[in-house]
Amino acid sequence: MNLGIQKVEALDAGHFVRVEWEDGSESRYPCVWLRDNCQCPHCFLHSARARKLVVEDLDVNIVVKEVSLPDRKTISITWPDEHASEYEAEWLKKRCFSEEARAEMREHLFLPERQYWGSDLQLPEIPFEEIIYNDESACKWLCTLKKVGIVLLTGAAPKQGELIKLGHRIGFLRLTFYGPTWQVQDKTDANNVAYTTGKLCFHTDYPVLQHPPGVQFLHCIKQTAAGGESEVVDGFHVANKLKKQNPQAHQILSSTAVDYTDIGADYCDFAVQCKQRIIDVDSRGQAVRINYNNATRDTVFDIPAEEVRPFYAALKEFDNLLNSAEHKFTYKLKPGDIVTFDNWRVLHGRQSYPSGSEVTRHLEGAYADWDVVMSRLRLLRKSILNRD
Q1: For residue 2, what pLDDT band results from cuts at 50, 70 and 90?
Q2: pTM, 2 dp
Q3: Average pLDDT of the segment spanning 76-96
Q4: Which CATH number goes with the domain that contains 233?
Q5: Within a domain: residue 29?
Q6: How far is residue 93's CA from residue 3's CA, in Å, rounded to a whole number?
Q7: Which InterPro entries does the UniProt record give (predicted)?
């Protein structure tokens, strides 16, 4: 982006600054935003990339006193109190308020594009060693994880500790009441339904937390010969289907606060309670997080009695869609496989397998927050782009 500025002028009695670019396009900037984002050392701490100007000192009705174009790459503004601000062309262009520019910035910062799937999923695969030691492969892994919601890493050592390496690669893992990592295997007096040999219905992990982990890792260390197949379903895709098929059911699941509970002891003792909507939506009504775990859904249900049956009817329809053959994808992990998936989007389950006197199936699990994952992704993309 090397566009220069052709012309600059104040508009609307000084409340806006209009920039005309060399390619003929234009941008309009509100003066209160320009003053709020002055880049001078008095207003902005560049070593921390943080604003020093406080809102109490900001005049929301501020207008420019003078605006000028000292060169094609900078505009200068003098404010009524004689404070002077300068803004570089590239900095301004990136922050243009047009819908196109804002969409481009959203794509750059958050990678919002999603690729929906059902039973036709082509499970993306990348060698584990590549993402550990190669930035391009790590970037591809995280970009695909954000877009598709699931990636299989292959060729890890079939032993505990590989997920610690994964945590170091992205930054750090999420600590929960089950520990920094946890062992999925048949256990006596299991404190979690996952620690049995029974079938696990489609669920997201930890909706009992106010901020459930965004990403989950499951490393296959030992696999049973019979049973134990993994199943996944794209929760956002199914939520969209439900919205089209039964808008009222979707409205109930996206507005009803469901109680979740988890009480026990593991990494430490815990008594966790939370209220979550099964389908969390944004201001546009698009699903942004699925919070559904039938095992930890509480017997307490804090809604009027007459709303209970309609809720169950909506939940049943959602669950039926999750389990339909066209939506679910089944696969079987091999020792050394690590499945990485979006815990806010992808619901996972497991088919039952035979119990015995010895442990026949062992997965190690861990979590990471999307904030940590996206931070690493942005740094990797920047490093790769700068290298080019």
Answers
A1: confident
A2: 0.95
A3: 97
A4: 3.60.130.10
A5: yes
A6: 8
A7: AlphaKG_dependent_hydroxylases, GBBH-like, GBBH-like_N, GBBH-like_N_sf, TauD-like_sf, TauD/TfdA-like
Say yes or no: 195 and 88 in one domain.
no
Tell whether 94 and 206 lie within a shared domain.
Answer: no
Burial 284-315 (b: 16+ CB within 10 A, else e): eeebebbbbbeebbeeebeeeeeeeeebeebb
pLDDT digits (tens, 9 = 90+) for 298-348: 999 999 999 999 999 999 999 999 999 999 999 999 999 999 999 999 999
Which of 74, 106, 138 finishes a domain?
Answer: 106
Q: In sequence order, what are the residues at sequence separation of 6 or more whose Cβ sits closer than 8 angstroms to the Cβ of residue 49?
A: none
The tokens describing 80, both together, are 């009524």
> What whole-number distance in Å separates Cα of residue 248 and Cα of residue 252?
6
CB atoms within 10 A of CB 245: 11
Domain CATH code at residue 17: 3.30.2020.30
pLDDT of residue 387 exceeding 80, the answer is no
How far apart, in whole angstroms, are the C-alpha atoms of residue 200 and residue 350?
A: 5
> Total domain count for the chain?
2
- Expressed as residue numbers, the domain containing 246 is 125-384
